[in-house]
Specification:
The chain has helices spanning 4-10, 12-15, 102-107, 109-114, 175-186, 260-274, 291-304, 319-323, 338-348, 391-401, 433-440, 444-457, 460-464, 555-563, and strands spanning 31-34, 40-43, 54-57, 84-86, 92-94, 119-122, 126-127, 160-164, 189-194, 198-201, 214-216, 222-225, 252-254, 280-283, 309-312, 334-335, 376-377, 407-411, 466-473, 476-485, 488-497, 503-507, 514-518, 524-527, 534-538, 542-548. It is of the alpha/beta class. It folds into 2 domains: 4-46 and 461-563, Immunoglobulin-like, CATH 2.60.40; 55-458, TIM Barrel (Alpha-Beta Barrel), CATH 3.20.20. The strands form 8 sheets. Strands 16-15-14-9-6-3-18-17 form an 8-stranded parallel beta sheet. A 6-stranded antiparallel beta sheet has the order 19-20-21-26-23-24. A hairpin with a 2-residue loop joins strand 20 and strand 21. The two termini are 28 Å apart. Bound molecules: calcium ion (4 copies). One calcium ion binds at residues 64, 66-67, 69-70, 99, 101.
């Protein structure tokens, strides 16, 4: 999927000191240089993964496509199905299973594809315990950092990483068949969510609970067991060897990054799913394990899948900190752009905001990231509050996310402004369901998202082009994305308006002659050789993307593109 080898070979003059030879996910810095045919080679990234747009969903909370796998009587005294957390005024969250499964995703493959997405990222697929956790501190509506009373409906409490949880599969739909149908019916790639840091809640259990604190291998043999002991009470006995003897996250077992058997366990497990149709990887809680563990694990996976694209969750708003993961010596993985999330929500949650304030996270030329064009951009997810804004705010945010640098990731439900502003235990993970999806198909956010995501899906400049910012001021923004590489030449001029009125947005500098084409309606904007400016009417809460499919000739613009 990602032609790293040919990239490295053909563009070796760009790479110089950086070792791309391991086929890392993040290519070195954006490129600009002259090529032999007199046209300038210019792009942000040449990594094919940048053409992706990802729809992220909590499988259990998306759509119940097969009630026969709901196991509604599972768990006995600590029942696993439907465990509501009740808030004021009828508000609800839920920490039990609610029935979503592979079949529910597959039933909506066309829906996801039609919106303009090319991949789905599902929460972890591995077998989790079959009861609610009876230890820890009991979670209540709106609270955080407590696991008591919760189940593994989210998938992040693995006990057998070689086995799919029984709530997800159907009799006729195992993982391999599921990914195969996503690909053949809807051309959707699958992002496998992986965990290396922890297993399930492992101590403070009030009574014995099957699977909690245990890990099983591909033959269903027990390989590790926390035995309900505080980490500091663990001994040197064989079943304790997988664990660190210190707490990390809540009461979760903390896996030993220095034990080669742990590394081998996860290598074998994730290679299994990659062989069954997973196309890319998202790493959970990467910052809770040292770089050396991830370097080894990602090397092991890429030894078999040299072009594998990997991105990680390093939950921090410090760009210098999360950028460490993108360096080749640390595994060379992309990261979810948390600083970007902060800047994006600050702008789109506040109608009075200034577009200027969004620029802080881009790091287009300062070398902070191995390659900023390969970061995963988003405005919310399952671990934080939903973006707290109006329908127009979501539309404006999507117009930005699908035109600016980075690979967009949208959390399920954002297309209908689902559970706006709510945090994890306030409803941000609530069940969406087929009825909401049917309503979504005519929702204003869904319509605008579908427009801009499909524009991006068909524009190499928006996917990979080098970004040159023009004017960011008040409610409007304008910038170029330029891709000139291997015989393909496309520049996108992006004009954004987040106000309630249509605006005439003017570009006074760097105007390139040629027939610019409106990507939405194919209207032509001719620009003459001596023309100095271009003005375009942009609707309220709208975006215009004008495409020029020829090499740039404006010397001033070229000089700016090549300077860095
Ligand atoms: Ca189900
Ligand atoms: Ca289970
Ligand atoms: Ca696949
Ligand atoms: Ca850890």
């Amino acid at each position: 999927m990602n032609p790293c080898f040919s990239f490295a070979k053909k563009s070796v003059f760009l790479l110089l000191s950086t070792a791309l030879v391991g086929c890392i996910a993040t290519a070195p810095s954006p490129s600009s240089s002259s090529s032999s045919n007199n046209h300038h080679t210019i792009y942000g990234t040449d990594n094919n993964y940048a053409s992706q747009a990802i729809y992220f969903l909590l499988t259990d909370r998306f759509v119940d496509g097969d009630p026969s796998n709901n196991h509604i009587n599972q768990g006995g005294e600590f029942a696993s199905f439907d465990r509501p957390l009740l808030g004021e005024d009828g508000q609800q969250a839920n920490v039990g299973y609610l029935g979503g499964d592979f079949q529910g995703v597959l039933n909506n493959g066309q829906y996801i594809k039609d919106m303009g997405f090319t991949s789905v990222w599902l929460t972890p697929i591995y077998d989790n315990p079959d009861q609610a956790f009876n230890g820890g501190e009991e979670i209540k509506f709106g609270e955080m950092f407590k696991d008591g009373g919760k189940t593994g409906y989210h998938g992040y409490w693995g006990v057998n990483f070689f086995k799919v949880d029984e709530h997800l599969v159907s009799e006729e739909l195992n993982f391999q068949k599921f990914t195969g149908l996503l690909e053949s019916e809807f051309q959707l790639d699958f992002v496998l969510d992986i965990v290396g840091n922890h297993g399930s809640p492992s101590y403070t259990l009030k009574s014995e609970q099957a699977k909690f604190g245990q890990l099983y291998d591909q033959n269903d043999n027990l390989v590790a067991d926390h035995q309900n002991l505080h980490p500091e009470k663990l001994s040197d006995e064989p079943l304790h060897q997988f664990f660190n003897k210190k707490p990390d996250i809540a009461q979760l077992s903390d896996l030993n990054e220095n034990n080669p058997a742990v590394l081998q366990y996860f290598t074998d497990a994730y290679l299994k799913w990659l062989a069954q149709g997973a196309d890319a990887i998202r790493i959970d809680t990467i910052k809770h394990m040292p770089h050396h563990f991830w370097k080894k694990l990602t090397d092991n996976l890429r030894e078999v899948h040299p072009e594998l694209f990997i991105f990680a969750e390093s939950y921090s708003y410090d760009a210098d900190f999360i950028a460490e993961h993108t360096q080749p010596q640390n595994g060379g993985v992309s990261v979810l752009d948390f600083p970007g999330r902060k800047a994006i929500t600050a702008v789109f949650e506040n109608p009075e905001s200034d577009y200027q304030d969004i620029l802080s996270y881009l790091h287009l030329t300062d070398g902070t990231y191995q390659n900023p064009y390969e970061l995963m951009t988003f405005y919310d997810n399952h671990d934080m509050a939903r973006m707290n804004t109006s329908d127009q705010g979501f539309i404006d945010a999507n117009n930005w996310l699908f035109t600016a640098r980075g690979i967009p990731v949208i959390y399920y439900g954002s297309e209908i402004n689902f559970m706006t502003g709510k945090a994890e235990h306030q409803g941000n993970r609530n069940y969406l369901g087929q009825a909401n999806i049917e309503k979504a198909k005519t929702h204003v956010i869904h319509q605008a998202l579908t427009n801009i995501a499909n524009i991006r899906k068909n524009s190499v400049a928006l996917q990979k082009g080098k970004q040159i910012n023009l004017t960011f001021n008040g409610d409007s923004a304008s910038f170029y994305r330029v891709y000139q590489n291997k015989g393909t030449h496309q520049t996108a001029l992006v004009l954004l308006n987040k106000s309630n009125q249509a605006q005439l947005i003017k570009v006074d500098e760097y105007v390139n002659q040629g027939q610019w084409v409106d990507a939405f309606n194919q209207d032509i904007y001719p620009v003459a050789a001596n023309q100095q400016s271009l003005a375009v009417q942009v609707p309220a809460h709208g975006v215009k993307v004008l495409l020029l499919n020829q090499p740039l000739s404006n010397d001033k613009l070229l000089a700016r593109l090549i300077e860095k």
